[in-house]
Description:
The protein is an alpha/beta fold and 298 residues long. Helices cover 40% and strands 19% of the residues.
Amino acid sequence: MPISVRSACSALLAAALLAACASPAPVPARTDVAAPAADAAWLADVTAISSAADNAGRRAAIESALAASGLKAERKPFAIDKREGVNLFADVGGPDGAPLLLIGAHSDKVEAGRGATDNASGSAAVLALAQRLKQRPLQHHRVRVAFWDLEELGLLGSRAYVAGGKDKPALYVNFDVFGWGDALWMQTLDETHPLVAASRSATEAAGIALNAGKAYPPTDHLAFQKAGWPAVSYSLVGRDEISGILEEFAGKKVEPAPKVMRVIHSDNDTLAQLDAAEAAKGVGAVEAALRAWDAGSR
Length: 298
């Protein structure tokens, strides 16, 4: 989530920083040996991305993960608002000439913390979907994944892509903050969109909640929606956090502060905050929703 919209919460974040441990505890080892491989794969990607020394290193970790899935990353430098960055893309598969489904997340981070939740978690969700949609392509859409640079400075990477006006997707699906919780939070301008119903069915099957609507923190979906391009965004958080998150982004102080607001853009943003099992469940629900949406797109 971009740093420019976080000023209203600076006092809260300062308090969180003071309360943060100097050396956060590592993620506890899982004791259930039968844990799905999806847990470990997602956590491995988050670990590699968030362990990088800088944003270029985070992109390199993503490129390595894509290569391990048999996908070739394409670097696309851009310049916008007197800033320069590099977006990453990879073609995943699907029928040639079919409408484009673009799936993305921002790969950059702010200086504080490791950027594990914001937004290695979302980038790892996109990597997981890329691998699955390569192994079993959609029937009616070709899929491309994107990893945006400089989101934290004002959605610059996604804005540069939209400003280029090329390869407009039939739908853009964004991921930002996807590290824990029992609720799939979906931003959409159109609650009658077929993907909303598909997401509701998928979350019910997965045993998690769905919160779908227009109210949502600012992130890369906005670049598409402001241009009139269809886009949605997903986060995975605790269902009891959502109202407090929206109040904080509106400039109100909430006590106790939602976990998200105590983690992102702070030294608390480490692997210790994440729940790989919950994240894998959320990724699985989105995959099921996208497949159902695609199957109905004839």
